[in-house]
Specification:
It is built from 3 helices and 23 strands. By secondary structure, it is mainly beta. The protein starts with a strand and ends with a helix.
């Protein structure tokens, strides 16, 4: 799946490059996509029904939309895991499992005041089941949110219908307030820490159990556009160990890494510029001057930033 600034989502068949579906519903550019892990409950071995996935999409508007997609059809859903919004689609078109999983909450989800820049499903804990995933969102309203859906046992099914937990409407259980737009985020189920990247140039680490910001990482000098977690495995002297790091990317043209457990916070990744010259990320001016892009990339970035400014 791919989302575009033209407000559409395209579903592709990877093996052939064939365009299967074009999804329309957003009114402004699509900024992020995420597949609901609960979709895996709909995959039945040797079933005559096609595999079904539920896709969530975020755009330069407050709404998060959800879509029911198969190889042969695609439509916006009226709820998190329910029938398509198309009134002509009959309940009988759903598989028995999909009928069991149908929820009562309405789409689209609307928990923010403006653009939703990032959406992320993450396990609520290590080894969590597909239905025990949290939806994290990052927005230009200066907040990140933690959305959860209560799960209740399904009613007793008939002998030919598999029993699955039934999701309830999404609710916002935590809000993480920032001084500027939240551009990116990542969650670590092992430590239950949430890491956010902000337009104020800083990376923040939040303790999910308390909702408090436990660390602010300073080093970038432009908006932090992306964060991820990387585990480095170290071997030596017949010993094997690992360390977990935050990697952040910024419009200042640098990548930086930060030890998640608090050690070596200021360490940085060496960046190789497009001309092959190594640039020390600790030099702010040099790093900024070395960021090269094509004319088309510059124009695309300018258009996107202008669109985000309009939302503010």
């Amino acid at each position: 799946m791919s989302g575009s600034v033209d407000a559409t989502i395209i579903v592709w068949r990877v093996s052939t490059g064939e365009r299967l579906h074009t999804l329309k519903g957003h009114t402004r550019g699509v900024l992020d996509l995420a597949i609901d892990p609960m979709s895996s409950l709909l995959v039945q071995p040797h079933s005559l029904h096609p595999s079904t996935i539920y896709l969530f999409s975020a755009a330069s508007t407050p709404e998060i939309r959800s879509w029911r997609i198969t190889y042969s059809s695609a439509a916006e859903t009226t709820s998190t895991l329910a029938a398509p919004a198309d009134e002509n689609t009959q309940p009988s078109a759903l598989t028995p499992d999909e009928q069991v999983l149908s929820a009562a909450d309405s789409a689209p989800l609307n928990f923010h005041a403006t653009s939703v820049n990032k959406i992320l499903f993450s396990p609520s804990s290590v080894g969590a089941a597909p239905y025990e995933n949290t939806l994290f969102t990052a927005s230009s309203d200066n907040t990140a949110q933690c959305l959860t859906r209560p799960i209740v046992p399904s009613s007793s099914p008939s002998h030919n219908v598999t029993s699955h937990p039934k999701p309830q409407p999404w609710t916002s259980t935590d809000t993480f307030t920032h001084p500027d737009w939240v551009r990116s985020l990542v969650h670590d189920p092992d430590t239950n820490l949430l890491v956010t990247g902000c337009r104020d140039e800083e990376v923040r680490v939040w303790d999910m159990s308390s909702g408090e910001c436990v660390k602010t990482l300073t080093g970038h000098f432009e908006s932090v556009e992306g964060v991820c977690l990387v585990t480095l495995v170290e071997e030596g002297n017949k010993k094997r160990g690992s360390s977990k790091w935050i990697v952040s990317v910024s419009l200042d043209g640098t990548l930086r890494r930060w030890r998640l457990d608090g050690e070596d916070d200021a360490q940085k990744l060496e960046r190789t510029d497009v001309d092959g010259e190594n640039v020390d990320a600790s030099s702010g001016k040099a790093g900024k001057a070395k960021v090269l892009a094509t004319e088309e990339e510059d124009q695309e970035l300018a258009d996107l930033m202008a669109e985000l400014e309009d939302d503010d």
